[in-house]
Amino acid sequence: MGLPRHNLDPALRDAFDRYILFSNTDEDNRRRGELIRPCLKSCGRNLQLAPGATIPWPDRCVFGDDVYIGLWTYIGGGEITLEDLVMIGPHCSLTGGDHQFNPEREDFSARHKHAPIVIGHGTWMAAGASVTCGVRVGRANLIAAGAVVTKDTADYAIMAGVPARQIGSVKT
Which domains does the chain have, with CATH numbers? Predict the structure, then answer.
């Protein structure tokens, strides 16, 4: 897929780095979305991808319409679906794979466990929130800053804490 980064002209490489890592305008976020679109398993219209967002296996991702992925967010490790109108804040993590414990070595070198993640229509994940493998986040959830969602959530839930628990509903 093109020249290795280290083979690029230094001026071009620096311009590319500034664009990918620092330019956080709506126009550039939409352009980054357009650049990754062909690599995704499926993608609706108006994907916005902020600087530093990392999607190492885009061919495992399905993104709906009007999805926003914030600064320095990681999305990887398994099949991941972001339904329409999902907003993901900065420094979030959606990790569709877990390291497994190897009792013979007493470390986490055993085979990875992979399970899909689905983020429901209209959900907002605030800064630093995480969703672990095998979780389905319901429709129109608010995932509070720093929350770690380890289990499926109901529609319209407000989730907070580590591990996350429902503390309210967006429909009150």
Answer: 7-169 (2.160.10.10)
